[in-house]
């Protein structure tokens, strides 16, 4: 059986543990001292125990076959840097939002990194359990611009079949899906976080001009990065807002809790790509600067 080490046992980590725990032994690396493990995942009327355990401090990392990085983009480098050498033999799967962390990890471990993305959702119930809060599409595939080793390719394929409770598909071009998710997050996340809105409140007419302006900048940057987005991007943003109308965006949740947010890997990534391409991004920069101002002070 595959020995898997999770880094970040939160919402996405809980969903993936539930998905794959019948075919792998799930361990969790204690990347911070206050780490607790969700005990169960609630899916509708059913409760599913999560069988993961904390990785012993004296255990041999050579036992690990797969590392699943499920923490937030802004946490990736700090969480994994010390593990890159002792786990240099393993295959890594990174599932965070935004862009930037994916490319960084793939450059550290060429041929051993899988990228993943999901529109599944989960939220903590406050009693040690996670609740599946939305169903969606989950894709995994090779990191862009890097070929996979035979071992990592085979391991990645084993995660796709047989089917589990969450549909997971192999996709050779995960980057295009990450760009689409990035584009939508770059509109919904900062606006809802700054103004303490639910996603559905973005459907109000007062936000349409801002949504259109952001989508125009995002589309121009994406085209310059050879990742053209659909012409109806603004409508797709509104569709997601409608489908998740009662939800709080992950960035709003982080801001409300006084935690660091992922803005540098969402709007910040787009601002940097725009700068390199000579494209002005005033609205993206505006929201980037606002959310940066809400980052907690470093201690």
Q: What attributes does this structure have?
A:
single chain, alpha/beta, Rossmann fold, N-(1-d-carboxylethyl)-l-norvaline Dehydrogenase, domain 2
Per CATH, the superfamily of the largest domain is NAD(P)-binding Rossmann-like Domain
User: What is the number of helices?
Assistant: 10
C-alpha-based Rg, rounded:
19 Å
The amount of helix comes to 25-40%
Counting helices, strands and paired strands, the structural category is alpha/beta
Order of helices and strands: EHEEEEEHEHEEEEHEHHHHHH
**Would you identify the regions where 5 or more consecutive residues have pLDDT less than 50?**
none
Average pLDDT score? 95
Strand order of the largest sheet: 5-2-1-6-7-8-11-12
From the coordinates shown, what is the CATH architecture of the largest domain? 3-Layer(aba) Sandwich
Domains (count): 2
The count of strands amounts to: 12
Distance between the termini: 41 Å
CATH topology of the largest domain: Rossmann fold
Q: Quick one: biggest sheet? A: 8 strands, mixed
Basic shape:
globular
Q: Approximately what portion of the residues adopt beta-strand conformation?
A: 15-25%
| CATH class descriptor of the largest domain | Alpha Beta
């Amino acid at each position: 059986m595959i020995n898997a080490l999770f880094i970040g046992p939160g919402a996405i980590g809980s969903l993936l543990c539930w998905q794959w725990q019948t075919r792998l032994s799930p361990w969790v690396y204690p990347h911070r001292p206050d780490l607790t493990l969700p005990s169960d995942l609630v899916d509708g009327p059913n409760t599913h125990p999560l069988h993961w355990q904390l990785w012993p401090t004296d255990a041999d990392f050579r036992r690990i076959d797969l590392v699943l990085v499920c923490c937030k983009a802004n946490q990736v480098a700090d969480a994994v840097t010390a593990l890159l050498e002792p786990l240099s033999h393993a295959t890594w799967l990174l599932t965070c939002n935004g862009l930037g962390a994916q490319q960084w990890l793939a450059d550290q471990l060429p041929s051993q990194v899988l990228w993943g993305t999901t529109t599944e959702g989960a939220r903590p119930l406050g009693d040690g359990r996670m609740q599946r809060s939305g169903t969606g599409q989950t894709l995994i595939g090779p990191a862009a611009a890097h070929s996979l080793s035979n071992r990592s390719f085979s391991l990645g394929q084993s995660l796709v079949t047989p089917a589990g409770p969450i549909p997971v598909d192999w996709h050779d071009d995960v980057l295009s899906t990450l760009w689409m998710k990035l584009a939508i997050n770059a509109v919904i996340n900062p606006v809802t976080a700054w103004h303490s809105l639910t996603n559905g409140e973005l459907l109000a007419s007062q936000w349409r001009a801002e949504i259109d302006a952001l989508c125009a900048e995002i589309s121009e940057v994406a085209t310059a990065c050879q990742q053209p987005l659909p012409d109806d991007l603004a409508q797709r943003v509104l569709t997601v807002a409608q489908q998740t109308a009662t939800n709080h965006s992950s960035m709003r949740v982080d801001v409300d809790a006084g935690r660091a947010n992922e803005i540098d890997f969402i709007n910040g990534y787009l601002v940097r790509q725009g700068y390199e391409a000579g494209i002005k991004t005033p609205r993206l920069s505006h929201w980037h600067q606002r959310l940066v101002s809400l980052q907690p002070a470093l201690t």
